[in-house]
Amino acid sequence: MTDSTVLRLNGLSKRFGPVVANDDVSLTLAKGEVLALLGENGAGKTTLMNMLFGHYLPDAGSVEVADENGVLHSLPLGHPQAALAAGVGMVHQHFALAENINALDNITLGSEPLLALRRNRQAARAKIEGIIEHSGLKAPLNTPVGRLSVGERQRVEILKALYRDARILVLDEPTAVLTPQEADTLFENIKAMTREGLSVIFISHKLREVLAFSDRIAVLRHGRKVGEMATADADEKAIARMMVGADTPKVARTDMAPGAPVLNLSGISVSGRYKRDTLKGIDLEVNAHEILGIAGISGNGQSALANVISGLAAPSAGHIQVDGTKVPKPSPAAMVKAGIGRIPEDRHHEGIVGAMSVAENMVIERLDDPEVQSRGLLRRDAIRDNAERLAKAYDVRGPGVTASSRLLSGGNIQKLILARVFERAPRLILANQPTRGLDMGAAAEVGRRLLEARERGAGVVLISEDLDEILGLADRIMVIRDGNLVEAGSHDREKIGLMMAGEPA
Amino acid sequence: MMDLLNILLSESFWAASLRIATPLIFGVLGALICERAGVLNLGIEGIFVVGAMCGWMAVWLGAGLWGGVLAAAAAGALFGLLHAVLTVPLGLSQHVSGLGITLFATSVSYFTYRTALPNVSSPPRIEPFQALDIPLLSDLPFLGPVLFQQTALTWLALLMVALVWYVMNRTALGVAIQAVGDNPDSVDAQGLSVYGLRIGAIVAGSALMALGGAFLTMSAFDAFFFGMVNGRGWVCIALVIFASWRPGKALFGALLFGAFDALQVRLQTEMGALVPGQIFLMAPYILSIIALVIAARSADYPRALLTPWFKGQR
Questions:
Q1: Of the four listed, A24, A32, A220, A311, which is most buried by Cβ atoms within 10 Å?
Q2: How many CA within 13 A on the CB side of residue B73?
């Protein structure tokens, strides 16, 4: 590794309306270095990288990139084409791939003259195969990208950057969708490439992988750079403190004897058009005072499971018992009535009605309650008072309870949903990806509330792609893969990772 | 039953099917290009009218037949550009903008026609495209009358099927158009212009649609009438789904519809005494709805169809 600087960000700032996304952030990157950009959601990591790549135009600041000879040149801002030409490649968290064309076409897109009558696909293929051989990033080139696995799609994304001769690679949360084993392989590939002179910035909020794979760490909070250190000198606690600005309250978790079963699924099958909508005869039991964690890579039947438990999908076989009583005709209303509280995966679309007020959203699941309506008319004062009380108790912040709920931030929408669910003291709580996209503070709050419900005697089904979250909260863990659900039998990260990937543990 | 077989085996039936299909081929290909890029163009019905009017009027003013074709394409491209500006950089509702373009383009065409010819009772005629009489080939049994006695515009339509297929599947431009209709971010991240690709596709597609209209006044008939487009544009919008956005299937769909239409005319004369004529007029549309119901279930929609994309918002 040499000390020559390949990238320098000078005082970049960006505002979106009244929100300051980045404030005077400066960074440097050396040749062959892996820099981890760490911070909570909303800390401004992605915005910073989007400015580097030209997706956003900074309000202030400049970017310098070194050419092949190591001489720094100022980069014209706001032009992805300029960034690409200067050797900056970005792999977005949400893949920027067209699914109807194959990997080869995705990789060469934009690098061929558009108006040429013929394409030189042989030359392109040879170059890509050379890169694959060098980097170990294997992906089928002739299959439409829509049919590739998530890991393969990510490798195609990286190949896209390397095909454009990227010397600086930016990876936005590259492991969010990978199994632990896939993530390790990815980082080994990256390490190999840095030995050949590639410089890498990767965005993450997973401390574990940052400590394991980076050379240097920069921490962002509220759009500012609050710390920078060599990974060798880094201290996990200090970084966490830097990210959040205070010590994270450790979620207190007491051991508890499970009570009577509150939810039984036996032999449940759902036949869906896609894998994520399919279940193949699963059995599941959740007891009072118990959190059951469902681990798995996204798209392996989690949505089907959540839909069955919340009554949104009718199983083609099997039956459901809540509190020992069979639910004869599962429907969303029947499941709510039976005592199931639902924290949906897509909180913006399935959790709230954005055009309705915060207060209305808080009572939307109990409109037949006499507290909410009398003789068919809504009791607006009672609804507002209820909302004021809940907003205080659950710390829902925003422009007030009469404002449209879509104006709330993601974290506050989640608190609204928590308030709605927990106030009804449900027998069973279905929490599907409850902390996805939340910052550490809000995520800790969700965990605390789930543990509180468990203490009260509720059962919890926690579906999450974040294995750390499941390991931290769940009493018992099951792994969902390809529509099948199996008991993990332990809290062993390695073993669960292998089960998620479908390999015999 | 014998009658039906006689119809299906007659040269004139298949020649008529291809003739009726020609404007639809132009229209479906145009709609296909727009939708592959992710933009629905409901302006198609009005653009047909504009193409019919402009093509005819250019010839009437002395521009020559191919001058008329160019005029129609240019006028279609212009209305396509309007739709493109409204729906791509401005991101307005593609439905509303498209219907607006149809109403606007139709009215402007009628208005122009009436202003240019205030006092005619019967529409002035032009000398339209004549059937290309290719020696030897047009003397072939069966195939000769069906294929080789069509006008140059029908040949142009068939050529366009091959051209659109080639561009879409074999060139970098076609791959980029497919990508921008599936996930505009993929195109943006590779440094291509989403707006440029979409606007270009809509303009080109609209020019093709206008040729479908031009065929009506310059080949099928020899004058411009009000109401002559008669829903052909809407049929193309349905056919493009039937075709699953593929040029080859688009040709097949247009021919199928043409065959239905040619068949109903003949059945009407054969059986008109028994069944009300309106039943036969409805038949092609009912059959296309049935075909659509069957085909649309497995249709592979461009994922970004109808979704506006704005730079800097991801």
A1: A220
A2: 13
Backbone φ, ψ for residue A229 (5° rounding): -160, 160
**For A151-155, which contacts have Cβ atoms below 8 Å and span 24 or more sequence positions?**
A151/A177, A151/A178, A151/A179, A151/A182, A152/A103, A153/A95, A153/A97, A154/A91, A154/A95, A154/A178, A154/A186
Say if residue A504 is exposed, middle or buried (CB neighbours under 10 Å; 0-12, 13-18, 19+): exposed
Q: Do A171 and A93 touch, CB atoms closer than 8 A? A: no
Cβ <8 Å between B171 and A118: yes
Q: What angle do CA B271, B274, B275 make, to 5 degrees?
A: 85
Residues A76-106 have pLDDT tens digits of 988 888 998 999 998 987 889 999 999 999 9
Which of helix, strand or coil describes residue B284?
helix
Name the least confident of A304-308, A335-339, A438-442, B23-27.
A438-442
Range A120-125 contact pairs with CB under 8 angstroms and sequence separation of 24 or more? A124/A163
Residue holding tokens 């013929």? A118
Mean pLDDT calculated for residue range B143-153: 84
H or E segment and range at residue A84:
helix A80-85
- Here the ipTM equals 0.89
Furthest-apart CA pair in chain B: how many Å? 65
User: What is the greatest pairwise CA distance in chain A?
Assistant: 79
Chain B interface, best mutation among A101, A120, A153, A157, by max B CB count within 10 A: A101
A385-390 CB contacts, 8 Å cutoff, 24+ apart = A386/A359, A386/A362, A387/A357, A387/A358, A387/A359, A387/A362, A387/A363, A390/A362, A390/A419, A390/A420, A390/A423
Q: Are A315 and A307 in contact (CB under 8 A)?
A: no
Residue B305 neighbours by CB distance under 10 Å: 17
Q: Are B109 and B228 in contact (CB under 8 A)?
A: no
Beta carbons of A343 and A432 less than 8 angstroms apart: yes
- pLDDT band at B2; cut points 50, 70, 90: low
Task: Report the C-alpha gap between A70 and A90 in whole angstroms.
Answer: 20
Q: Would you call A114 and B172 a contact, using CB atoms and an 8 Å cutoff? A: yes
B-chain residues within 8 Å CB-CB of A55?
188, 312, 314
Average pLDDT, integer, range A3-8: 86
Share of chain B above pLDDT 90, in %: 70
